[in-house]
Amino acid sequence: MTIQERFETMKNNGMEVQLPIELFGLLDEKSTIAHLDAKAIAFAEGAISPKFKTLIALSAAVALDSPACIMNNVKAARKNGATNEEIMETIAVAKFSKSATVISSSTQALEWLVSQQ
Predict the structure, then answer these.
(1) 75 and 111: one domain?
(2) Do residues 81 and 110 share a domain?
């Protein structure tokens, strides 16, 4: 199946094909198919419910600053039954997690500043 056929199948199943993945597909079909296959494996039925998988993906998208992925995962979370409250809590947890890594990444600079007091 070509990447264009894959995108059509996604659209026919009610999924959006975000612009970044569409552009990536135009430039590197093999890598895009591998990426979509990895997504299918990650989101396949398993121990974690589809709702929680999309909330996990949303958290990662927020922490990694990916607007297209944030939007895609908010829509997927709603489609999988997440409430506004669950989505907002997920964003809050991601925001906290990201801010904690900023503080942690600054350890060397913070140590230097403390030594200068």
Answers:
(1) yes
(2) yes
Spatial distance between the Cα atoms of 117 and 86, rounded to a whole number of angstroms: 43
Do residues 50 and 43 touch, judged by C-beta distance below 8 A? yes
Report the number of distinct structural domains present in the chain: 2
How far apart CA 112 and CA 28 sit, in angstroms, is 45
Q: Is the pTM of this model over 0.85?
A: no
What confidence category does residue 14 fall into, taking pLDDT thresholds of 50, 70 and 90?
Answer: confident
> Which bin fits 65, alpha (ψ -120 to 50), beta or left (φ > 0)?
left
pLDDT above 70 covers a percentage of the chain that reads 100
Are residues 73 and 57 in contact, defined by beta-carbon separation less than 8 angstroms? yes
**16 and 23 Cβ atoms separated by less than 8 Å:** no
